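Why this split exists: single-chain examples teach little about how molecules sit against one another. For that reason, every record in the complexes split bundles all components of an assembly together and asks for one structure covering all of them. Below is a record exactly as it appears in the raw files.
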Amino acid sequence: MVEVRDRTKESFQRLVTAELPALYWLARRLVRDGAEDLVQEALLRAYRSYGTLRQNTAAGPWLKSILVNVFRDQLRHQARSPEELPVDQVEDFSLYQTLIEQDPLPYSDTLHHDYLRAFGNEDVREVLLRLPELYRAPLVLRYMDGFATKEIARLLDVPLGTVLARLHRGRKRFEQELWAYAQETGLLLKGTVQ
Amino acid sequence: MTVKPGPIPCSEAVRQLWDYLDHAVTPEDQEKVEQHLSFCRACCGELEFATQLRGFLASQGAEELPPRVRARLERFLADL
């Protein structure tokens, strides 16, 4: 652990420059448009609270937490009604079973693996962006960025049980959208699967 | 004498698979899921796919910053 002793603007710039790709990546998976603005606002807030960062090595999670706070505040300002899904609307779908039944890659010996391999980074982003933010944010933070569920509850300012329920529905919805996206875009016909 | 509950149905096992992989189920639920998996081939497949899907999500790592975005953010940092 390296304690932050130098609190100058230059040291802040050095510290966060290394984190810019990860911040931008996270922002692009949380919002369709305005990822750069989201990162910029997070950087501004981080600079204002630079004094609260104790260890240099914690800069990555610290910056991501601030970015999620900015994202959460933006959602609140948009004041959109929540898009909670009825449980039974997502509960019945199984991508695992659907792939077996529909067999979209009849020549594959490793159907499920090859199906996932057909999705590039931008395809996955498109699938994620089809999910309501309510479900997308916990899914991205938990399974793509490795945040603990308790930490996600704190960052999004919701009870832990709510995070767990949204993760469950988010996973199911993500599976549904992985299937729908491939059908709608002809992804499996593009020759990306060897 | 305690009576062991009967096996859980597939729907219940599948509902708990990701939490099971996350070690986020109670010891009792863990036992129920494992008991179910011991005889249900379909749910073992679901478990394997859930593991693949988790790995797939985790492997979506950060990419290079587009030069235009890097230039904008570095300019912003310089102007702080």
